[in-house]
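Board notes, transcribed. Complex of a protein with manganese (II) ion.
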Amino acid sequence: MKLSIVLSTHAAQFQAVALKGDFDANVAKIAGWGYDGVELAIRDPQLVDNDELGHIVSSHGLIVPAIGTGQAWGEEGLSFTSDDPEVRTKAMERIKSHVPLAAHFDAVIILGLIRGITPKGQTHEQSMDYLVEALQECSAVAAKEGVRFALEPLNRYETDLIHTVFDGLDLIERVGAENFGLLLDTFHMNIEESSIEESIRVCGDRIFHFHVADSNRWYPGAGHLDFSSILDTLFSTGYQGFVSGEFMPMPDADTSAREAIAFLERSSN
Ligand code: LER
Ligand code: MN
């Protein structure tokens, strides 16, 4: 099993990122705890020095399996489903701007809340049309560089758009791009899926990335999810990617990161 943990390159409001602050020091700690990779949360690639970032990560022997983009929604309100065409265009341009960095690291680009929330007065159907349009355009650009997108089904308290693996698979069919798949997150799955294991099996080779947090969004082992069964099922699909920790820094960031890796290693056969 290859394990990574989410690290933000800049300060952000999103709560379920255990590690924030001094980037170099955090990367060193992550490597020291035994993680194989670091998932980077990047609001805007323009704010990042690619060479420096690559140097820091590789000097600690880590891989970047995925790049999270949700801060562009959280901090700037960019979304694929806004009723303002300028915002939709900006969201697409921002996502396309992640492609060179993702190609450099061979990382998947995560599409979480950049999909947005249906604005007041707009129909769900209209949002889904905008979403499909944006995903088709972005997937075509990324395909040229061999980069893949992973859209994350999110729970109902965060958005009205794409809650379950089944919603995600319908969307994949509409988008019709080989480089477009899903990111499954155990925290959201625990709220929305009838059976986490069955949904993992059904998603199969369209699982492009995997987030772990326990039922309370603390580190795995701090809640009541059955990670032995979840990880067994995940690997039975042939999944070869990373299992990436995205959880609250509770009781504190370092403890959560250390507890997570110890527990996940005990839970996988
Ligand atoms: C991001 O990966 C995530 O899981 C969401 O809860 C972000 O809103
Ligand atoms: Mn997630």
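The longest strand covers residues 2-8. Residues 2-267 form a domain with the TIM Barrel fold (CATH 3.20.20.150).
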